[in-house]
Specification:
The complex is a heterodimer of chains A (about 425) and B (about 350). Chain A folds into three domains: about 45 residues; about 140 residues, no CATH class; about 220 residues, MetI-like (MetI-like fold), CATH 1.10.3720. In chain A, about 65% of the residues lie in helices and about 5% in strands. Chain A has 18 helices and four strands. Chain A has a three-stranded antiparallel beta sheet. Chain A is extended and about 105 Å long. Chain B folds into two domains: about 150 residues, D-Maltodextrin-Binding Protein, domain 2 (3-Layer(aba) Sandwich), CATH 3.40.190; about 180 residues, D-Maltodextrin-Binding Protein, domain 2 (3-Layer(aba) Sandwich), CATH 3.40.190. In chain B, about 45% of the residues lie in helices and about 15% in strands. In chain B, strands 1, 2, 3, 4, 8, 9, 10, 11 and 13 form a nine-stranded mixed beta sheet that branches. In chain B, strands 5-12 form a two-stranded parallel ribbon. A two-stranded antiparallel sheet of chain B has the order 6-7. Chain B is globular, with a radius of gyration of 24 Å. Classes of the chains: A mainly alpha (about 425), B alpha/beta (about 350).
Chain lengths: ~425, ~350
């Protein structure tokens, strides 16, 4: 077995260490698998937590009451007069309907508790109804109305609190009334369209995500329109035209540094320049977009430069050799080939901008905005800001809405990333 | 590609023009200020937007001090019209306003807020005194052996602070120093508890009696240093500005106490309970009549020069000071605000109607 020197031959050495190397190989693979498993586990825990908390926010409890549109009670004699409709007292109609159904609530305190069953936003629904159908005046019609958030929480969790009593912000009397309403089939759980069609509200049952979604979209549009062309132009110049000297090196170092600067610094910069110096107003998507442009520019420039660098020099040489000018070479050959890479980098930058709250805090986009913004010069919030604001609200029903808003943000991000992958696949060219 | 570039330039140009045009006017009220007043201010803003033809005011929570700073920057559409505050404006702040041309400021008192020291509803309700809280939470406390010396806070258990309290670890979750709730807690609980120790209270008396300004200031700083410094050895945990988080943590840890605004107790009454302070439990009634010792006034301040310039300010003020809003049965009480008495509210309304400035 051993040779004349008494040492092992190479083949023997290899054979001897083979088992050890196989084991090491297996361990190495196991490390990788466990890293992925850990990541997946975290993801599963996060998603189950968010979804289990948030899924109930997509449903909203409605209560059916027989509403009599009593002209004297409301103070309306002409239902086509917009002024009268605006000032009419709809609350008393709802109160009368509740009183009629539950005459046993007589004391002041009981009455207040009874009125609290229906959301105070129901009055505005009645106004809209009457505006559309003026013939409703003087009639009694069954109407489905938003339930108050506490009642909504009770109806949603009534069944899981079996055995021990449900402990929410709802009195025993209110529970009794709601149970009666449920037995009479006057309570219904519907898909929560309000959540997707209205702006923020301090009443959880009337709060919606649309305002924040539109705000995010407007901010993002400003960011895309400014940062992509500027970023690409800078990258093209630096890669194709700029001479290699100390000055361009200096610029390059600065761009790389800026990419690592914490986002709050860009917020402070935006506050000083756009609001302080240019005297723009606070909370505008325009200012938000400008700040996020500053933040994403370095990312876009770096990724665009990498994409341009990856275009083989032979393509450039061929274009120039056939008599194309440098501009034609860049616009007709280099940019189309580099586009998938640039888009991927840009979309990653935009996705990052979409999830940003810190710089928006400085320029006042962390605010209570009810009206849905219609232009980049209307005050607005953004999705992550809305999540932050709701998580800080005392009302219990905002907990589920916070999780639901996170789901909306995730869906937004996933669709953006899907778009990035699709664009890359579509535009990608092989050579 | 050329077309694309020219479209982008055009878009950028139009947006810049739009911005210029917009800088001249604003058709919604801009409100900044205290995060304690924010929940009340936003409810009024929302109702106001829904029930009138005016746009819904925009409310930003910047903290009382931050709000006044923004408010005092000047007159013009880019500056806020109203700032909320969980304390009265200081004279130095009024001076700062004046320097920037903000002269007519209308002060509106809207109600009170209680600060609650609470724990999980599953644990025993505590009956604390402000002195107990000072001794449990100050960085340095008087030597329990006697004498006028301070030692590093030695207390680990509530029972060591006061034998009548349960034998439980001192663990209090509270807001960070940037918060108005923290300021109020330090002033209304720690300082008051601190004053119950005679020789420390004497320092403050001496400071007031001292005629020499620098010496007086030194003594005052010494007094504040003793009374206002919260311990940093882990017994007091800074739990962030998010009061909801404090409530959740209290649920998970029945031994811990938390410091938060009354509206959070009101909304989570099934999960947490408020400790009695000096024998008074934090209830709606005890805060309203002043029996509960830890409460503070809530204000907002209006720029008189903006009334008429920005549409709807007068109407917003009328809505906020109406009986159905801030009265004893008003909708703000549903959100946990402690209302003014009827006479006081009438006085405030009168002041607002005539826009009486500070």
């Amino acid at each position: 077995m051993t040779n004349s020197n008494g040492t092992l031959s190479t083949a023997e050495k290899v054979n001897k260490s083979l088992q050890k190397r196989y084991r090491a190989e297996k361990r190495f693979r196991a490390y990788g698998i466990s890293a992925i498993a850990f990541g997946l586990l975290c993801l599963v825990v996060l998603f189950t937590d968010i979804i289990s908390k948030g899924h109930s926010a997509f449903f909203q409890t409605y209560v059916k009451l027989d509403i009599t549109f009593d002209p004297t009670e409301m103070g309306v004699d002409d239902p086509t007069d917009a002024n009268q409709l605006a000032t009419a007292d709809y609350d008393s109609l709802i109160r009368n309907a509740l009183k009629e159904q539950f005459p046993e609530a007589s004391g002041r305190r009981d009455r207040r508790a009874l009125y609290a069953v229906v959301s105070n936003g129901a009055a505005f629904t009645l106004r809209e109804q009457l505006k559309e159908n003026p013939q409703l005046l003087n009639q009694t019609v069954p109407m489905w109305m938003l339930a108050d958030d506490d009642i909504d929480t009770y109806v949603k969790h009534r069944d899981d609190a079996q055995g021990d009593t449900f402990a929410g912000r709802i009195s025993e009397k209110q529970m009794g009334w709601v149970d009666t309403l449920i037995d009479n089939n006057q309570v219904e759980s519907r898909f929560n369209t309000t959540f997707f069609t209205s702006g923020d509200s301090r009443e959880p049952e009337q709060a919606g995500i649309l305002g924040a979604l539109v705000g995010s979209l407007l901010t993002l549009v400003v960011t895309i329109l400014l940062s992509f062309p500027i970023g690409v132009a800078a990258a093209v110049y630096l890669e194709e035209y700029a001479p290699q000297n100390k000055f361009t090196d200096f610029i390059e170092v600065n761009i790389n540094n800026l990419a690592a600067v914490p986002s709050i610094i860009f917020g402070l910069l935006g506050l000083a320049i756009f609001i302080g110096f240019f005297e723009m107003q606070r909370s505008l998507p325009l200012v938000g977009g400008l700040v996020l442009t500053l933040m994403t520019l370095p990312t876009i420039i770096i990724s665009s430069r990498a994409a341009i660098k990856a275009v083989p020099p032979s393509v450039r040489d061929a274009a120039l050799g056939l008599g194309a000018s440098k501009m034609q070479m860049v616009l007709h050959h280099v940019l189309p080939l580099a586009m998938p890479g640039m888009l991927t980098g840009a979309i990653i930058g935009f996705a990052q901008a979409l999830g940003e709250t810190a710089p928006l805090l400085m320029i006042g986009m962390v605010a209570f905005v009810v009206d849905i913004p219609g232009a980049i010069t209307d005050p607005a919030t953004a999705l992550p800001v809305q999540i932050f604001l709701w998580s800080d609200s005392p009302e219990r029903a905002f907990v589920e809405r916070t999780s639901a808003a996170i789901m909306v943000l995730l869906a937004f991000l996933i669709s953006m990333n899907t778009l990035a992958i699709w664009l890359r696949r579509r535009l990608e060219r092989r050579w | 590609m050329k077309k694309l570039i020219s479209t982008i330039t055009m878009l950028a140009a139009t947006s810049a023009i739009g911005m210029q045009a917009h800088a001249q006017s604003r058709d919604y009220i801009n409100i900044v200020g205290s995060s304690t007043v924010y929940p009340f201010s936003t409810v009024v803003a929302e109702r106001f937007g829904k029930s009138t033809q005016f746009k819904t005011p925009k409310v930003e929570a910047t903290g009382s001090g931050g709000g006044i700073k923004l408010f005092c920057q000047g007159i013009g559409v880019q500056f806020p019209d109203i700032t909320n505050a969980s304390r009265a404006i200081k004279s130095s702040e009024v001076d700062m306003c004046k320097e920037n041309g903000v002269k007519g400021i209308v002060e509106v008192l809207i109600g009170y807020d209680g600060i609650v020291i609470g724990n999980s509803a599953n644990a025993k309700q505590l009956d604390l005194s402000r002195k107990d809280l000072f001794l449990a939470l100050a960085k340095e406390v008087p030597d329990p052996k006697g004498g006028e010396t301070l030692i590093e806070n030695p207390y680990k258990m509530w029972s060591e602070v006061n034998p009548s309290l349960p034998k439980r670890k001192i663990e209090v979750l509270g807001p960070p120093p940037t918060s108005g709730t923290r300021d109020a807690f330090v002033e209304l609980v720690m300082e008051e508890g601190c004053k119950e120790i005679d020789w420390i209270a004497n320092i403050e008396k001496q400071s007031k009696a001292e005629s020499d300004a620098t010496k007086s200031k030194q003594l005052k700083n010494k007094f504040k240093g003793i009374c206002h410094t919260v311990r940093e050895d882990g017994a007091f945990v800074e739990a962030g500005e998010n009061d909801n988080l404090i409530v959740q943590k209290l649920n998970a840890n029945p031994n811990a106490l938390g410091i938060f605004g009354f509206s959070f107790l009101d909304q989570n009454i099934d999960q947490i309970q408020g400790s009695a302070i000096d024998g008074q439990a934090p209830t709606f009634e005890s805060i309203a009549d002043g029996a509960y010792p830890v409460s503070r006034p809530l204000y907002f301040y209006v720029k008189k020069a903006h009334v008429g310039m920005i549409p709807g300010i007068r109407e917003y003020l009328a809505e906020f000071t109406s009986k159905k809003t801030a009265g004893e049965e008003g909708y703000l009480t549903d959100k946990g605000m402690i209302p003014l008495s009827e006479d006081k509210l009438d006085a405030v309304r009168e002041k607002v109607e005539s826009l009486t400035t500070l």
